[in-house]
Amino acid sequence: MEYSSSLTPELIIEPSKGWVSLKLRELWQYRELLFFLIWRDVKVRYKQAILGIAWAIIQPLLTMVIFSVIFGQLAKLPSEGTPYPVFCYAALLPWQLFSGALTRSGTSLVGNANLLTKVYFPRLIIPISASISGLVDFSVSFVVLLGLMFYYGILPTWAILWLPLMVIFTLVTALSVGLWLSALNVQYRDVQHIIPFLIQAWMFASPIVYSAELIPSGPWRFVYGLNPLTGVIQGFRWILLGTCPPHEWMIVSAGVMVILLVTGLYYFRRMEKSFADVV
Amino acid sequence: MGEIAIQVERLGKKYRIGTPQVPYRTLRDAVMGVLTRSLRRFQNSTSSKANAEILWALRNVSFEIKHGQVLGIIGRNGAGKTTLLKILSHITEPTEGRAILHGRVGSLLEVGTGFHPELTGRENIYLNGAILGMKRSEIVCKFDEIVAFAEVEKFVDTPVKHYSSGMYVRLAFAVAAHLDPDILLVDEVLAVGDASFQKKCLGKMGNVAREGRTIFFVSHNMGAIASLCNRCLLIDRGVVIEDGKASAVVSQYQSTLYPRIEDPSDLSKAEHYGTGKARFISLKLTPMAIDGTSQTCLHPGEDLKVELKIRAEAEIVQTNVALTIYDAYGHRLIDANTALQGAFMSLKPGQETSVEFLLQNVLLKPGTYLLGLWLGRGSFEDIDGITYAGFVAVEPNPQDIMHSETFPGVYQCKFTHVMEVLSMSKVALVDGNI
User: Fold this and answer.
1) Domain count, chain A
2) pTM score > 0.90 for this model?
């Protein structure tokens, strides 16, 4: 345990009752551990792989090629006036960031069971570090996007300044769901079998291979917007490719994200005390 | 800083075992559980709770530790030692009661927690240090010291998966040993590594204790407990049953370790193994003083007379008899077998015989030992055996200045000594006395 004050710290250990506090201050005190766990994840991910970090490029690039052939060439889905490969790749970037963060954070507690049962630290650090570590891959594949944009002659606008906010939005959404899944996975190992399926279904429920503008206006648009990734992905396209701005999507998506995050945090903290006994 | 380092009040931890809360539940089980439970509640409102078997891993534990005290915790496996440590380490939550810890706490339940095989020694030092709660600046400061302590200077940039298990453990312990808490909670971590490294670890722990830090030390190594701790708790089935001076609690615990031994003068109730063609029927131990007279207790260096009676149920041919003395942990210390002296025994059914051993100059250290009996034909046949047939209690020699129980060990060889001053200043020589 780490204490910043020079006074003798006092730690009281007793059964927790009712709703527990989120202890965000303590989380801040452990930021170095968070950093080291992210660093470990990044360092280890491509160890002993010949192509190493190149996988961060190959994966989205191959997916983009396949989608362009099937959905762009064969199905001829409209792409809001931009070339289909860029249209698709600009959505695959946040999607891969999201799905990677979700998969890793969802299984993170069980994967780090040895830490849970042997050392104390705020448990939230584990899913948080698992979500963030995908940023390195994201940055690498982002360079490829810039190359694609250059190839198709698309110049980024000032809207690109919104990019960091969009990235945070993506990660927080993944973390919110990851908090729920990771805490559930400790008790119900079914979750790790559900995650791949969930991600597949979620991908088609998000505007990746098609444009959200295809959704008919009216109540359906609202329902579709409940998927927080709708706002994020349309936002990415707006920022990078200059398609129409997704203001109304963003508001609904942000609302859903906040609800998921707050409930996820509280559910996680509530279940936290049993992690070491059950995992 | 106040006087008290750890204050524990009526701490308890409850686990549910068996139905309906088994650790690895699946969603289907949970759904079915809700259905069956509500159905059962409908049928009979009282029976639902009875199914959950409740285990109190710890109950009503209260104690205080002052700053600078080194407290040992001993007890059998499953007595609740680790549960207590996990609660104090903040890893698991108590069901009732509370604990207050004053000071920076470091806990060491395992060496090498979070070590990653793909990372190098250097990288793992940083990672493991952070996991144990060290600040980056602290790790940077102590880095060279850690590497030197672990003796892995040459391999610090090699992935630890290429380390030998000894190097791995040394590195892991070295990181933990350089944690600088006010209160250190340590589980059975010294049981790893080779003997010389264990010694180094114990030395390091001793240093930490001398620096005035509070240590809470769980171990099965009674020697380490007795030499490191000034106080000891004995836990059994989740309850503290003894709290006092380490050496006293350790010897009390050791006496409870032994299996129940029935009256050795009648071995019919003892647990026998073997074919049963013949049986040991009685055992008599007589400690002999140096002058050959019998006495009530045995001291190091004296003789022990062991008289056995054996009755044959069937014919036995060419058998030999053996006595074995074990220490409290079941280590075989002494084996006296008549076959070593070429003596064999044959009996007809119904015949009884007596065998007398005289164990000479038994140089066991004071403590309690166990005596086992065996009758058989070499490695071909076990005819009768009793793993633990009786106790051998060795008392300290009355003429010894200090009781040797403060110096753990098994074998007390006889020794003489000469003390001589080899170099001395002239002034002291003139003085003539030391």
Assistant:
1) 1
2) no
